[in-house]
Amino acid sequence: MTRRQALTLTLSPSILVARPIKGARYRVLGASKDQAQEKNADKNGPVVIELIAEERWPIRALDPILQIGGLTLDSYQFGNAENTILRFSCYDPDKLQDGATMYVQYGQDASSRTDLPNFYRNTNGK
Amino acid sequence: MRPIFFVLSFLLGAALYGQGDPTTAGPRKVTSQEYKITGVPLPTVSYPIDVWGTVWYPEDMTGGPLPLVLLLHGNHGICRLPGTQTDLGTTIFPPFCPAGQIQTPNHSGYEYIATRLASHGFIVASINVNAINVRANGGPERGATVLEHFRYWDVWNSADGAAPFGKLFSGKVNLQNVGLMGHSRGGEGARAALEFSRQAGSPYNIKGIIEIGPVDFGRTSSLTALTTGNPTYNATDTAFSVILPSCDADVSDNQGMRVFDRAAATRELSSPTPKSQLYVLGANHNFYNSEGTPEDPGFSCIDFPIITDRPQQEAIGLVYVMGFMRTHLSGEDFKSLFNGDAPQPASTLTPVNHSYMESPTQSILIDNYTAQFTPDVNNAGGLNNLGNLKVTRCLGAQCQLPAPVAWRHDQGLAAARLDWPADGTGTPYYAIHIGDNSGPRDISGYALLSFRVAAAFDLKNPVTGSQDFSIRLLDASGAVSPRIAVTDYKTIPYPTGYGFRRSVLRTVRIPLTAFRNVDLRRVVRVDLIFDKNPQGSLFLTEVMFSPSPR
Questions:
Q1: Choosing among A83, A84, A95, A114, which should be mutated to test the B contact, i.e. which has the most B CBs within 10 A?
Q2: pTM summary value
Q3: Does the pLDDT value for residue B273 go beyond 60?
Q4: CA gap B30, B55 in Å, rounded
Q5: Interior CA angle at B498 toward B494 and B502, to 5°?
Q6: Which of B342, B278, B330, B319 is nearest to B66 (CA)?
Q7: Is residue A125 part of a domain?
Q8: I need a surface site. Which of B81, B107, B143, B255 has the fewest CB within 10 A?
């Protein structure tokens, strides 16, 4: 290794290796009956946020986590057999704030972060 | 001196290496059988699951009862497109694969380990946990599943046996001599099983757990475990080892190092047992399971080539899992694989950085930077003096400062950051007085001086090669040992890793016999002398005297 290469490597604390998921967007749905039962949600059930992508959401040891402003959602399941839809449930819908920034990432792996359009309950990110 | 040392070291290592490579095929012919009991309720799962696995066992099970090893895979796709290794999650729980897809045989991916172990007289069952995969978290669910398999093995071992094996295993299985291997989420699941077994009165004697690239969700301080109640599981009072792939693109923060940190720091309540961590340079997450699809094709590792040959990585898994089980369940001697005292087996082909704790109960801790008045006063009660050196004590995330040091050790682990030169002149040094009131201490009953050390992400360290310094002992008469170079034993490489550089502590173990000319019954000081490089920045902790490997 040359000195120049070494310095280049030394000065880069990280390299981004995982990558965002292509074409990710979202839509907001009502409660899923099964999830509502499982989580003992209130009678109105959770708000379900579907993340739709142009490619598969990976399956990793680390769970995907959806961040909407200061709200963290980690209760999820796939929404279709192709695994291009991830479905998160929010059991505290009052904490969902219109205009909040929104992204999903796997655990604390920041390189896997996929940014989404800001959250709006009624416009589904359009 | 150094070439001579290396020759002697190799010869000593070869002698210590005992019975050689643990992966050689054993004498027994092996066969296998799948089992699946459907619709079994579990307390931590909201729907019935399948108790599903494959067992590999010797055709000749005489000489038993034989030790039982359970293997547990991680979170992976559970439905496969036939003829591919494209694995998908499902939308339906209990899991159900859509038409045109088959269940992914995730448990079959360790056949290369199971068959070889069985040839040495083990009964090895690999558990399929598709039923609880592709869900958030899963430590408690996996632990409960393992315990359910134990219960079935108890029944199959009974005089009457049970379906599907009949009396095949009656009296053949030793449930008081059990080992667990957990990969990825399976690692935390194995620890959960240990905890659940203890809560049930320890009906099964889990002699050891080895984990590969495990998660440690219960210890994650943010972003996870918000809704699923995953507690922290520890590997205490049992032999423990964790393999950390340095290029793990999945558990990309090497959470398993926290498990070792806690295990090594916890005094055993019942059985003194060794703990080890094996940071395998170049290894990735998935190649330890032959059914695991490759990592992200774009993945890469900083400064170190990723292992792209699956058999090469399986050979590493085979060495350590077999060495672990044969040591702790069969009483054979492959300890040097785990403490790093001997050269690695040729089949591993890539450097492995060891961390090792013989037994917290049986070692004398000198300093782990948790004492009152640290870092000026150490845990042994002596003073730490320094010259032309800056010493900063850090705990958990504090060790990340100043940025961009990447520190992923357990939040309860403290260390000293040593930076030299400071503002003074002269050769930098760090003098650790090891006795109460700096009085002499008898360490003649111990075999090794050991400490954990890692290079910080700092240009003061060599980017290639190794950082280095010297160590010497002083006794109460003023006698001084020769200076021992750390790199005569272990290197201190520049931080590397997947995605970001991380400082991973490794253990340096120096035999006390190397410190000639001092009376080991009256030692007063350990000196670290930074005379090898004009500058440097290191993390140091867990300075101790340890017994010989048991």
A1: A83
A2: 0.92
A3: yes
A4: 10
A5: 40
A6: B330
A7: no
A8: B81
How is residue B519 written in tokens?
Answer: 């009376």
Checking ipTM against 0.90, whether it exceeds it is no
* Residue A61 to residue B184, Cβ atoms within 8 A: yes
Residue B431: CB atoms within 10 Å: 18
| Domains of chain B by residue range | 17-357, 364-546
In a domain, A124, yes or no: no
Inter-chain CB proximity B298 and A79 less than 8 Å:
no
Looking at the DSSP assignment, which residues form a beta bridge with residue B209?
Answer: B180, B240
- Whether residues A65 and B223 touch (CB distance < 8 A) is answered with yes
Smallest CA–CA distance, residue B130 to chain A, in Å, is 13
Q: How many C-beta neighbours within 10 Å does residue B480 have?
A: 15
Instruction: For residue B5, count CB atoms less than 10 angstroms from its CB and return exposed for 0-12, middle for 13-18, buried for 19 or more.
Output: middle
A121 belongs to a structural domain: no
Q: A39 to chain B: nearest residue by CA? A: B227
Window 270-289 of B, Cβ < 8 Å to A: 285
Which of B363, B343, B542 has the alpha carbon at shortest distance from B453?
Answer: B542
For residue B228, the chain A residues in CB contact (below 8 A) are 74-75
Per CATH, is B17-357 categorized as 3.30.1330.80? Answer: no
Residue A38 belongs to domain with CATH number: 2.60.40
Q: Is the pLDDT score of B78 beyond 60?
A: yes
**Chain B closest-CA separation from residue A49 CA (Å):** 15
At B217, the amino acid letter reads F
A80·B220 Cβ contact <8 A: no
Q: State how many domains chain A has.
A: 1
Residue A55 contacts B where some CB pair is shorter than 8 Å: no
Q: A64 lies in a domain? A: yes
For residue B33, give the amino acid letter.
Q
**Of B225, B303, B499, Cβ closest to residue A17:** B499
Architecture of domain B364-546: Sandwich (2.60)
Contact assignment for B136 to A76 by CB distance below 8 Å = yes
pLDDT band of residue B404 (cuts 50, 70, 90) is low
In terms of residue numbers, what domain contains A49? 3-116
